[in-house]
Amino acid sequence: MKKLVESSGIEVAYKEVDVVTTGTFGAMCSSGAIINLGHSDPPIKIQKAWINDVEVCHPGAAVDLYIGATVMSETRPFEYGGGHVTEDLISGKEVELRATAYGTDCYPRTKLRTTLTKDDLNQFYLLNFRNCYQRYNCATNSRDETIYTYMGKLLPRFGNATFSGSGGLNPLMNDPDYETIGIGTRIFLGGGQGYVIGEGTQHDPGNRFGTLMVRGDCKKMNSEFIRGAAFTKYGTTLYVGIGTPIPILNEELARKTAILDEEILTDIVDYGVPRRERPKLGKVSYKELKSGTITIKDKKVKVSPLSSLKTARKIAETLKSWIENSSFYLTSPVERIPTDTICSPMKQTEEIAFVNSVMHPAVTCTEEEEIENVANRIISHSVNHIVVADDEGKLKGIVTSWDVTKAVAKGKKKLADIIVRKVVTTKPDESLEAASRKMAQHQISALPVIDHDKKVLGIITSEDISKLLGR
Amino acid sequence: MVRILLRFSEEIVDQPITAQVILEHGIPISIVAAHIDSQGGEILAEVPETHVEKIIDAFREKGVTVTVPKLIEVDTEKCFECGACLSLCPVSAIAFKEDSSVVFDEEKCIGSPCGLCIDACPAKAIKLVEQHSSYLNR
């Protein structure tokens, strides 16, 4: 369609093309599968259950379980999770179920252990409440350390960037006004046929962040298009393959489905700032993202996708061949998806403390000072941490009372020899929880507070945090 | 060229051993990657195949531990070709082909001194594996 519109114009494309197929294959965390086990004898009303050591949720009557994609195995966390359980079942593997219950007069059993394959399940349906984001942020990291996020591994100081989504091939980008995609639309889902059952949670079509809620029969799916995955130090998820057919009902749809990667822009977002509103560092098109390199703050940065473009293309092509050989029939939606919802932030009734509420001025020194001066300052201010700054107040390092003691014991005279130059820092708008997490991770007891120019604004210590908790 | 991995302990890390070996034997050694701090160091070096045994002996005499780097191995069954690893690779050993397949260039990969891609893989399809080498085990 894209090439045809460019070469022959919209009118010709509208007449020539009946259906445009789309595809995407990426990490879709808000996914899971509902299964029904049938009743055991004596019967059990399951209270808690695990499949391959992954806790599964028991939302219904007695033996219906929901395998959430992001729930991690209790024995192999960050490696194996609900997404993997779903993939294993789809690919025909045997899984182990454990369940416990409190026992009732009608469901007396309190313990259960068995093995299962998909053939042993009455129902096995993918039921995903948010899939198929229309587009997503490009993620990067301003911090001095590598961070592990749901957008993958992000190297320090904008060392790389990641993005997600198939751009011009994305289902919702090709029908942004939801003329053909609605409740009841039959789609390609995980290698089988599924349905759109509504808008996904956080559906925000006005900002081109539309999402879908979908359902499909797992027993007919193919594990090539449904894959469990694990993001290091973040958690597990499910890669879901989705493709939609878009009937070209009017010239406008011909124009819309001709959308190109260069027309789809997204924000470059700093995931180094763990807040709801993360700083935006500029805009970038999917064409640039797919090129492998983007520019952030005048620096060339390598960028990689988290979703597979190759599989997305394969999905669009498979759907096309199904339609051509009459094994897939298009449906018209029975109801339209809302085009005016927005994604509002959470209502919060408790105040969260940030670094700026407990930080206080740091006792500082310069690199050229004598160790003795620094030792005196530690005593006179009764502190354990002296922040080393240059003439402009920019952070150069940190010296602790322990470093000074060690220097005396080892007979070191120069301050420069004992300064710790790799300093873990915080910013005023970081939450105290995130700051204490940093201290625990690095086994340290204070963090200099700096601004984005590395200028020292103050310091927080673990004592400050303990005092706050004890209040 | 053959790649060898040189490990320097804390006691010898401050000595110019690599330079000494180059000067004493007049054989070029190319440093591909290096990581050195006060606790010790590691250098991934490339040496001419014809002189590899001589160079290994020379380093070992000076107290350096010589091994071969572990290499990256990709499990193609597990890999779903997302390309998340691409932006982590400092030597561009991983790239996309025209059709968006992910290709891995073993020649370019520096292996165990790097390994940045391993924990970036959502499919957990990347591993470091031991290389077998005849010239080390005499």
Query: Would you tell me the structural class of the helices and strands of chain A?
Result: alpha+beta
Mean of residue pLDDT of chain B? 89
Low-confidence stretches of chain A: none
Physical arrangement of strands within the biggest beta sheet of chain B: 2-3-1-4
Q: What is the count of DSSP helices of chain B, taking H or I runs of 4+ residues?
A: 2
CATH topology of the largest domain in chain B: Alpha-Beta Plaits
Q: In total, how many domains does the architecture of chain B comprise?
A: 2
Largest sheet of chain A: 9 strands, antiparallel
- Give the fraction of residues assigned to helices of chain B: 10-25%
Distance between the termini of chain B: 20 Å
Structural class of chain B: alpha+beta
Provide the CATH top-level class of the largest domain in chain B: Alpha Beta
Order of helices and strands of chain B: EHEEHEEEEE
Quaternary class: heterodimer
Poorly predicted residue ranges of chain B: none
- Strand fraction of chain B equals 25-35%
- The total count of strands of chain A amounts to 28
Keywords:
heterodimer; A: 471 residues; CBS-domain; 11 helices; 28 strands; 30% strand; B: 138 residues; alpha+beta; Alpha-Beta Plaits; two-stranded antiparallel sheet; 29% strand; elongated
The gist of it:
The complex is a heterodimer of chains A (471) and B (138). Chain A is α+β, with helices and mostly antiparallel strands and 471 residues long.
Q: What this model shows, in words?
A:
The complex is a heterodimer of chains A (471) and B (138). With 471 residues, chain A is of the alpha+beta class. Chain A has two domains: 1-136 and 162-261 and 306-345, no CATH class; 355-470, CBS-domain (Roll), CATH 3.10.580. Chain A contains eleven helices and 28 strands. In chain A, the strands form eight sheets. In chain A, strands 2, 3, 6, 9, 14, 15, 16, 17 and 18 form a nine-stranded antiparallel beta sheet that branches. Chain A is globular and about 85 Å long. The model of chain A has no long low-confidence stretch (mean pLDDT 95). By secondary structure, chain B is an alpha+beta fold. In chain B, the strands form three sheets. In chain B, strands 2-3-1-4 form a four-stranded antiparallel beta sheet, with helices on one face. Chain B has a two-stranded antiparallel sheet with strand order 5-8. The longest helix of chain B is centred in the middle third of the chain and has 10 residues, at 52-61. The chains are: A alpha+beta (471), B alpha+beta (138). At the A-B interface, strand 2, strand 17, strand 23 and helix 7 of A face loops of B.
